[in-house]
Amino acid sequence: MQKKFANFRRGLLSDRGVLKSRNCRSVVVMDRAIAQKLQIELKDKSVIVSPDITDLSPPSPDFDLAKQVKAKSKNRKIVGLLGSQGKRKGFLTMLEVSQKMKEQDFFFVFAGQPGYESFSPSELKRIGEVIDSSPENCFFHIQSIPDGSQFNALIDVCDIIFVVYERYPFISNILTKAAFFKKPVIASETFVIGETTQTYHLGITVPEGDVEKCIEALHDMTLSSKFDRQKYNRGCEKYNYSSSPEQFSRSIQKILNAI
User: What would the DSSP string read from start to end of 163-225?
Assistant: First the structure.
């Protein structure tokens, strides 16, 4: 089938056809690395990096779910996997991490809309077994959470945000929220999330699905000799500036200027 339609993938239907068209004055992307490559390829066209814009409302002090998490953590380090609880979001990885760290000073929060359709029957069975066992070091709230002040209250109550996503080539607004509320991340080392985390020193990156590396990263984050908090704070400030409404306005103005 791919061979049959190969001749049609020319001109505007090719991978870069639309971008190379003389009618295309500028290109907007959210991945800085892709922007640099496109700028070389497209030469005189404007390639603009748009910041990730998300709701950064102040955390709600009255959100009961966040209060429950704080109370049940019993002053342990809170690690949060927030938002969609699907396979691509690293749910199985953090689940296995939590089971291997039952006796350690960490509390794992799984909160957000379910993504059951992404798991195989055997994976769903494993998930059910763990949830039904009511592990004392875990908190499960597999339901949708309103964005804004309530969602941000959950971000704020966490000490570490888990974004070890699998085969996920996109930016995530969870990363933006984590940087804004000064919550270091454990992130997958690939794609734009890994690149952004490394560029701005927003946390520690690990291979996708690597349970042992995640455990090692969690321990490293609690050690000042392994995790430079000052470097992290400076990185957050730079990333927050790059994702600010002012930067978004500049991106829009660049687009308008290119027309």
Answer: E--SS--S--HHHHHHHHTT--EEEESSHHHHHHHHHHT-EEEE-TT-HHHHHHHHHHHT-TT
Instruction: Provide the CATH number for the domain around residue 93.
Output: 3.40.50.2000
Whether 34 is covered by a domain: the verdict is yes
What are the structure tokens assigned to 172, written together?
Answer: 């995530």
Classify residue 121 as exposed, middle or buried by CB count within 10 Å of its CB (0-12, 13-18, 19+): exposed
Alpha-carbon distance of 185 to 204, in angstroms, equals: 6
Q: Tokens 């004055």 map to which residue?
A: 25
Range of the structural domain that residue 164 is part of: 64-233
Is residue 119 in a domain?
yes
Does 2 map to a domain?
Answer: no
Same domain, 149 and 171: yes
What is the predicted pLDDT for the residue at 66?
Answer: 98
The average confidence (pLDDT) of the chain is 89
Burial of 133 (0-12, 13-18, 19+ CB in 10 A): exposed
Confidence of residue 178 (pLDDT cuts 50, 70, 90): very high
Looking at the structure, tell me whether residues 44 and 72 fall in a common domain.
no
Distance between CA 186 and CA 52 in Å, rounded? 19
Mean pLDDT, residues 221-250: 87
| Residues with Cβ within 8 Å of residue 53, at least 6 apart in sequence | 176, 243, 245, 248
Same domain, 229 and 102: yes
pTM of structure: 0.86
Do 187 and 164 meet the contact criterion of CB atoms below 8 Å apart?
Answer: yes
Taking the C-alpha atoms of residue 115 and residue 240, their distance in angstroms, rounded to an integer, is 29
